[in-house]
Design brief:
With 425 residues, the chain is mainly alpha-helical. It has one domain: Growth Hormone, Chain: A (Up-down Bundle). It has 17 helices and no strands. Helix 4 runs antiparallel to helix 5, helix 8 packs antiparallel against helix 13 and helix 14 runs antiparallel to helix 17. It starts with a helix and ends in a 7-residue tail after the last helix. The model has no long low-confidence stretch (mean pLDDT 81).
Length: 425
């Protein structure tokens, strides 16, 4: 009977919540990274060099990083419905304002404000899902959330490049139409969240009473077990814990690669001689492969439980792919290397986020998830700026790619040798 209730409960919660959080994160990624496609013509219109463009990429994270931990602590205090809804509405409006930029200065300002508005969304969604799903399901649930990353790249690039074809309609450039039409859904979805998002299992009137009781008891027992085994850490203890510091370094590596490639991959691929439209659809190929790898890897990890080793191997695969991209350069063979990168890092993301709940709880996990996520955003500064500087200085992406490959390799070693105590295999 308990297994029947468990399956029915998890199915009901997943159908109710996962589409909402997936769509929210999907549109945030669209609004954040459509800049890579827009840059194909926007940089010329605004007079931006590769390095100047990379500074605009970094400006987003300069606004995002200092607001991330406060944002997650506010969410933990006032609730997900109000705070996540607020985030979505404000970032959608500012994303639409990207259509109004007219030069380097306004470009930097709007990107900075977009970072401030969106700060805390991803760690907030992770924290929210930890309120609803027992640990046996977290790799698959995390995969459902971070699946938005490769899906946004697979669908976002063709969509953005298609919207760019509106160039000249009503006198506006294609990249202006792209920013407006892709920012609007975030505002609509944020309003929907304010009305329909359920805070905690105790508020889930849409669950059967037996299902609600099972979910509350299971989650309470798991949090109690975490606190008994690892002791309950306070917020400041958690933020300085060596395991949290190690996870921050690993996620910095993942952010460096993800954002470095996300903002420059369209330009890397266009160097093969493709049109803007063909570039957008070509970007989708390796991302689709990454989606398949993520789903298979997440399901397999939930069955066998080897989170740490799975994460280390996935990061190593990503480092190999980055090295291949640097070696092949402008050759279309680089597409294979890009696919290898997508397999490695897409598979690593859901594995990574199963680790913090294995030794953290309460406000400690709220603050720690936000801190860890901050380091990905530091990577969002380092990766794009390094690749942009290398491209400007050497007219090649190779130097920047070798750097992020080395960072990914180092992260794999940290996971393998430095995180043995985070979760028992």
């Amino acid at each position: 009977m308990d297994q029947t209730i468990e399956r029915a409960t998890i199915r009901a919660v997943a159908f109710r919540l996962l589409p909402l959080v997936f769509l929210l994160y999907f549109f945030s990624l669209i609004d954040r990274t459509n800049l890579g496609i827009g840059a194909l013509t926007m940089n010329h219109d605004l007079g931006l060099s590769a390095y100047g463009y990379s500074l605009g990429v970094a400006a987003f994270f300069i606004g995002y990083i200092p607001c991330e931990i406060p944002s997650n602590l506010i969410l933990e205090r006032i609730g997900a419905r109000l705070w996540i809804g607020r985030i979505a509405i404000t970032w959608g409006l500012i994303a639409m304002c990207m259509a109004l930029v007219s030069g380097q200065t306004s470009f930097l300002i709007v990107r900075f404000l977009l970072g401030v508005a969106e700060a805390g969304l991803f760690p907030g969604l992770l924290l929210y899902l930890n309120y609803w799903f027992p640990k046996a399901y977290r790799a698959r649930v995390n995969a459902a959330l971070v699946l938005a990353i490769p899906v946004s790249n697979a669908l976002g690039a063709p969509l953005a490049s298609s919207l760019m074809e509106l160039h000249g309609f009503l006198g506006f450039a294609g990249w202006q139409w792209m920013f407006v039409l892709e920012g609007l859904p975030s505002v609509v979805l944020g309003c929907f969240m304010l009305r329909y998002l359920t805070e905690h299992p105790v508020n889930a009137t849409w669950l059967d009473p037996r299902q609600r009781a099972w979910l509350q008891e299971t989650l309470a027992a798991e949090w109690a077990a975490v606190e008994q085994e690892h002791s309950r850490l306070g917020l400041w203890q958690a933020l300085s814990d060596r395991r949290v510091v190690a996870l921050c370094l690993v996620y910095f590596s993942m952010g460096t690669t993800a954002y470095g490639l996300g903002y420059f991959l369209p330009q890397f691929i266009k160097a093969w001689g493709l049109s803007n439209l063909a570039t957008g659809f070509t970007v989708a190929v390796p991302e689709t492969i990454g989606i398949i790898a993520m789903l298979i890897w997440g399901s397999w990890s939930d069955r066998v439980g080897n989170r740490r080793r799975s994460l280390s191997i996935a990061l190593m695969i990503g480092a190999v792919g980055l090295t291949g991209m640097a070696l092949f350069g402008a050759s279309p063979w680089s597409l294979i290397a890009v696919a290898v990168v997508s397999i490695g890092f897409s598979s690593a993301r859901p594995m990574f986020w199963t680790l913090p709940p294995s030794f953290l709880s309460g406000r400690a996990i709220a603050g720690s998830i936000a801190l860890i996520s901050c380091f990905a955003n530091f990577g969002g500064i380092v990766g794009p700026v390094a690749i942009g500087w290398a491209k400007t200085a050497t007219n090649s992406f190779a130097g920047g790619l070798y750097l992020v490959a080395f960072i990914a390799f180092t992260a794999s070693m940290i996971v393998w040798f430095g995180l043995r105590s985070v979760a028992r295999e």
